[in-house]
């Protein structure tokens, strides 16, 4: 499969099968904005649940929270984003399109559009990525606010609230999932670089010393890598990359990215682990004039903790999971496409079919089994449209791990149902009594 081609195939599958649609499409769309369809929201939800389970629910030292998207402009002045959250922008002197100056592939793409003319560019200027809006009912009472450029600041501004309400013992963390907004100069590559996207993050607060910093940093790097692998990636398709000092974000003392080997542009950032030291809490203490220090009861010390951050994009994980799972093969002499998703991520866990639509006894038995499975596995689908081959093809393309067919032997001979495995296409006959435990075991 050609590399470029794979991305086009994913975009097309996402639209055809109800995963992702261009935002406000019937009005011509909006660059860098996408809407998620019925299977898309399920897959996203499963990725987020996996994050929440591993980074929050299964931990004793981490709290979850959900901060607001809108924050006053002063938060972003304190965090440094108003001045420093920028990308270099250049404008094409022929058509006046503006693009990012630090992305050679974007520049080359644009220059190739002007075929015969030689493109010249304006000098780069810094362009701030924060999205602004206003709140308030009248001109004199409106307040300038920003849609958060990273979900992180919602956690830092609540640091004191968490101390006062939860009395945590250091080290401890606060995890969050939510939307972030960036006025990206050149949104591109489908879900990879959007203007509205979702992040999953952990801010882990630690004692402020180098030894503890190094230890925790290594621990969270390994934790994040293992988590990302758990989405179903081949190990050779993920790698670490350390940020050069000139590309570090203004808040980071050190930063490492987990990168995915994409078919559309080679190695690209999937997830970041950042050593933010005391940048955020110190700045918010100073700007808000609120004491954001931590008092350690055991050592009787008061200090501003350091922060080790894990930060990943939900949409980027979604895209990379699809790119990794997309498979073409030949089955029964026919070409087919299937998504090799792990059962924990698959939007639909099981599909149930009556062999024939016009045989009420098959349909009612299939409905009965469908209802029972739905109670146990949640997202289970009933399908009696078209022939069985077509139903399998549809479920293969949305990544359903198991399809169950109720046929005449189920009813007349009590011989159980057939269970078809998505990856091999092989069918097994399983008794109705064993069906639950059989599927449960397979889903782990
Ligand atoms: N709080 C730290 C932070 O926001 P970042 O590297 O700017 O760090 C973290 O973003 C993650 O968010 C990235 O690794 C990526 O997965 C995702 N992300 C960032 N910008 C994005 C965009 N424009 N579209 C989609 N995902 C994005």
Topology:
Elements: H1 3-16, E1 20-22, E2 34-36, H2 38-57, E3 62-64, E4 70-72, H3 73-79, H4 81-84, E5 86-91, E6 98-100, H5 104-113, E7 125-128, E8 131-135, E9 143-147, H6 152-156, H7 159-166, E10 172-181, E11 196-206, H8 210-229, E12 238-242, E13 254-262, E14 266-277, H9 279-288, E15 294-296, E16 301-303, E17 306-313, H10 314-325, E18 326-331, E19 334-339, E20 350-354, H11 360-377, E21 380-382, H12 388-398, E22 402-406, H13 408-412, E23 417-421, E24 427-430, H14 432-443
Parallel strand pairs: 3-10, 20-21, 20-22
Antiparallel strand pairs: 1-2, 4-9, 5-6, 5-7, 8-9, 10-11, 11-17, 12-13, 13-14, 14-17, 15-16, 18-19, 22-23, 23-24
The chain binds glycyl-adenosine-5'-phosphate (GAP).
Glycyl-adenosine-5'-phosphate binds next to strand 11, strand 14, strand 17 and helix 10.
Structure overview:
- The protein is an alpha+beta fold and 444 residues long.
- Helix content is 35%, strand content 29%.
- A hairpin with a 3-residue loop joins strand 13 and strand 14.
- The chain starts with a helix and ends with a helix.
- The model has no long low-confidence stretch (mean pLDDT 96).
- Bound molecules: glycyl-adenosine-5'-phosphate.
- Glycyl-adenosine-5'-phosphate binds at residues 150, 152, 182, 184, 193-194, 197, 199, 201, 269-272, 309, 311-313, 315-316.
- Glycyl-adenosine-5'-phosphate binds next to strand 11, strand 14, strand 17 and helix 10.
Keywords:
alpha+beta; binds glycyl-adenosine-5'-phosphate; 14 helices; seven-stranded mixed sheet; 24 strands; five-stranded mixed sheet
Shape, principal axes of CA atoms: globular
The total count of strands amounts to 24
Q: Quote the beta fraction.
A: 25-35%
Q: Could you say which structural class the secondary elements and strand pairing correspond to? A: alpha+beta
Task: Name the ligand types.
Answer: glycyl-adenosine-5'-phosphate
State the low-pLDDT regions, or none: none
Order of the strands making up the biggest sheet: 3-10-11-17-14-13-12
Average pLDDT metric: 96
Quickly count the helices.
Answer: 14
* Biggest sheet details: 7 strands, mixed
Radius of gyration: 25 Å
Helix content: 25-40%
Distance between the termini: 31 Å
């Amino acid at each position: 499969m050609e590399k470029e081609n794979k991305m086009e195939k994913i975009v097309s599958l996402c639209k055809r099968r109800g995963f992702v649609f261009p935002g406000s499409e019937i009005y011509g769309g909006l660059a860098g904005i996408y809407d998620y369809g019925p299977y898309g929201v399920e897959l996203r939800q499963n990725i987020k649940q996996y994050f929440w389970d591993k980074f929050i629910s299964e931990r004793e030292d981490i709290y979850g929270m959900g901060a607001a998207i809108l924050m006053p402009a002063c938060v972003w002045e304190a965090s440094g984003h108003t001045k420093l959250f920028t990308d270099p922008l250049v404008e094409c002197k022929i058509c006046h399109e503006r693009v990012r100056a630090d992305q050679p592939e974007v520049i080359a793409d644009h220059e190739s559009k002007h075929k015969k003319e030689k493109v010249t560019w304006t000098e780069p200027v810094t362009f701030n990525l924060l999205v602004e809006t206003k709140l308030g009912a009248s001109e004199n009472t409106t307040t300038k606010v920003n849609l958060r450029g990273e979900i992180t600041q919602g956690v830092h501004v609540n640091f004191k609230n968490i101390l006062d309400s939860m009395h945590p013992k250091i080290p401890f963390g606060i995890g969050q999932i939510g939307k972030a907004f960036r006025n990206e100069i050149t949104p591109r590559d489908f879900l990879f670089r959007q203007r509205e996207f979702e992040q999953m993050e952990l801010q882990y607060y630690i004692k402020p010393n180098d030894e503890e910093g190094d230890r925790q940093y290594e621990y969270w790097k390994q934790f994040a890598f293992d988590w990302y692998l758990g989405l179903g990636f081949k190990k050779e398709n993920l790698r670490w990359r350390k940020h050069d000092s000139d590309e570090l974000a203004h808040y980071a003392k050190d930063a490492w990215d987990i990168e995915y080997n994409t078919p559309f542009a080679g190695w690209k950032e999937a997830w970041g682990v950042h050593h933010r030291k005391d940048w955020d809490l110190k700045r918010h203490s100073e700007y808000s004039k609120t004491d954001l220090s931590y008092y350690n009861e055991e050592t009787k010390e008061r200090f501003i903790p350091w922060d080790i951050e894990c930060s990943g994009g939900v949409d980027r994980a979604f895209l990379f999971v699809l790119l990794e799972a997309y498979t073409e093969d030949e089955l029964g002499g026919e070409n087919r496409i299937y998504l090799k998703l792990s059962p924990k991520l698959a939007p639909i866990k099981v599909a149930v079919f009556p062999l024939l639509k016009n045989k009420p006894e098959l349909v009612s038995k299939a409905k009965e089994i469908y209802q029972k499975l739905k109670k146990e596995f949640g997202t289970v689908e009933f399908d009696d449209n078209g022939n069985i081959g077509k139903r399998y093809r549809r479920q293969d393309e949305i990544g359903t791990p198991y399809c169950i067919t109720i046929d005449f032997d189920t009813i007349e001979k009590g011989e159980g149902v057939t269970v078809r495995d998505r990856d091999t296409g092989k069918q097994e006959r399983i008794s109705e009594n064993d069906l639950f435990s059989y599927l449960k075991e397979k889903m782990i």
